[in-house]
Amino acid sequence: MSRARAAAWAAVLLAAGCQGSQPPYAGKSVAELRRMLGSADPAVQAQGAYGLSLRGPEAAPAAAELTGLLHSPEVSVRRNAALALGKIGPEARDAAPALAELLADEQWTVRRTAAAALGEIGPEARAALPALEEHANDPDHLVRQAVREAMEKIGR
């Protein structure tokens, strides 16, 4: 790899917050990750949400903040917030209406992650079934699959 190319990659990694070999969320407590959600920088918000997704149900205290991030203009923030809510599981039931709204997102990755999150919330997300049924014929096959699986987990 040329020096110029290596320097360009180093700049990209620094801009993304990947200094050294540890991602920005590594080793952080749930409280620290929650603080990242309040950053003005969408990249920091996305990293905080992803870090919380790795904590599963332990991240439940952050569910309200994550739900608020579902309305972010940034795709990575919406997607990672939905991912974290799904990993929290049934305790994230209050996020189900906002996740159901994301099924109409312009980005297929966000739609797929929202559908999967609703499935992980399970029967507690029963109110989202009409929205899931409405999106059962999504243009993207991965979204359709996630919608089908979510409906099964919720229990049509």
Provide the fold topology.
Elements (H helix, E strand, L loop, with lengths): L2 H13 L14 H8 L4 H12 L9 H7 L5 H14 L7 H7 L5 H14 L7 H6 L6 H14 L2
Helix pairs in contact: 2-3, 3-5, 4-5, 5-7, 6-7, 7-9
Features:
single chain; about 160 residues; Leucine-rich Repeat Variant
Helical proportion, percent range: 55-70%
Radius of gyration over all CA atoms, rounded: 17 Å
CATH superfamily: Leucine-rich Repeat Variant
Structural class: mainly alpha
Based on Cα principal axes, name the global outline.
globular
What would your notes on this structure say?
The structure is a single chain. The protein has 156 residues and is mostly helical. It has one domain: Leucine-rich Repeat Variant (Alpha Horseshoe). The chain is built from 9 helices and no strands. It has helices at 3-15, 30-37, 42-53, 63-69, 75-88, 96-102, 108-121, 129-134, 141-154. Helix 2 (30-37) runs antiparallel to helix 3, helix 4 packs antiparallel against helix 5 (75-88) and helix 5 runs parallel beside helix 7 (108-121). The longest helix is centred in the middle third of the chain and has 14 residues, at 75-88.
